[in-house]
Write a structure and sequence with these properties.
The chain is of the alpha+beta class and 151 residues long. The chain has helices at residues 20-31, 52-72, 94-108, 121-139; strands spanning 8-11, 14-17, 79-83, 86-90. Helices cover 44% and strands 12% of the residues. α2 (52-72) runs parallel beside α4.
Length: 151
């Protein structure tokens, strides 16, 4: 049997459907079940995934300034490899800084490094906020606020 999702919100100490459509869909679903059908119900907080503006700000502004901050502080490479017995340093990239900052964020907060793909909008906001503070403290780099567009 396929999973069915019904969105609810807590109001007055009870779970209530989020809108008439949710309740109508639920009632139609239940009506179609045979009597004495055993069902499993799972409740979970609805996670809103990170937003495109958050990702745009992260890639276009946060990482750009963080990379420059690393370079300005003499860290023009954070990756090296031994090739044919010689150590080669590779120029710092946005991808390197992205991975480094996510790992540092996870370690400093004692959480699993889940990567941006699985982050909620709240987690992404926390990563951005933490990164801005970290860059200011460790790289002496100020990351500008996102530009707000008129609505």
């Amino acid at each position: 049997m396929a999973k069915n999702l019904f969105y609810m919100e807590k109001r007055d100490g009870r779970l209530k459907f989020s809108g008439d459509h949710q309740e109508q869909t639920y009632l139609a679903f239940v009506k179609g079940l045979p009597d004495r059908q055993v069902m499993k119900m799972e409740l979970a907080k609805n996670r809103v995934m990170k937003t495109n503006p958050q990702l745009g700000y992260w890639h276009a502004t946060v990482l750009k300034h963080a990379v420059q901050g690393f370079i300005d502080n003499g860290h023009d490479s954070i990756r090296s490899a031994t090739v044919f017995g010689q150590v080669r340093n590779y120029a710092i990239t946005k991808a390197d800084v992205d991975e480094y900052l996510k790992a540092e964020y996870a370690a400093s907060n004692n959480i699993e490094n889940i990567g941006k793909a699985k982050m909620s909008d709240e987690q992404m906001s926390e990563l951005i906020s933490w990164t801005k503070k970290w860059c200011a403290e460790w790289l002496h780099t100020v990351i500008p606020e996102p530009e707000r567009t008129a609505q």
